[in-house]
Structures are given as structure tokens and as C-alpha cells.
Amino acid sequence: MVTAARTISQIVVHMAVAFVTLYVVTGSIAFGGLAAILEPICNVIVMPLHDKLWKRIRERVGAQRAGAQRTSPTASVTA
């Protein structure tokens, strides 16, 4: 229940920020309302792409680190 309330709260905040920002810039309730509706829709479309990009970045960094660890010389002591 708390998770659902938090999610709804985040959506309301995003929509309010979009509305207020565009209303202040344009003075138009219509444009503010349009921004409030379009902003969450854009987030739904863009955020999965953003997450996918960061997953690829994490995988590349992990592969580079694993490769660097395999090629690094093992410390050996010669007498």
C-alpha cells in the first residue's frame, strides 16, 4: 500500500511540476495541462530505454574490469 501511495505521489509531483513550469513560462492553462499529461507519457516511453542503456554500460564496465583482472600479473616473489 505504501509503495502504491509513493508511486501515485511521484506521478502527481511530476505532473504538477510540468504544469506549473509551462504555466509560468506561457501563462496558458491549456499548455500547462498539456505538459502535465505529456510529461508522464514521455517518461513511460523514455525510462525503459534509459534503463536499458545503463544496463549495457554496467555490463561493459564489468567486462572491462573482469578482463583487466585476468590480464594483470599475479604478484610473485622471487628469491
Structure described in brief:
With 79 residues, the protein is mostly helical. The protein has helices at residues 2-26, 29-71. The longest helix is centred in the middle third of the chain and has 43 residues, at 29-71.
- Radius of gyration, in Å, reads 23 Å
Averaged pLDDT = 87
User: Strand share of the residues?
Assistant: under 5%
Class inferred from helices and paired strands: mainly alpha
Number of E strands: 0
Helix content: over 70%
- Poorly predicted tracts of residues: none
What does this protein structure show overall?
- The chain is mostly helical.
- The chain has one domain (2-60).
- It contains two helices and no strands.
- It is elongated and about 65 Å long.
Feature tags:
mainly alpha; 2 helices; 79 residues
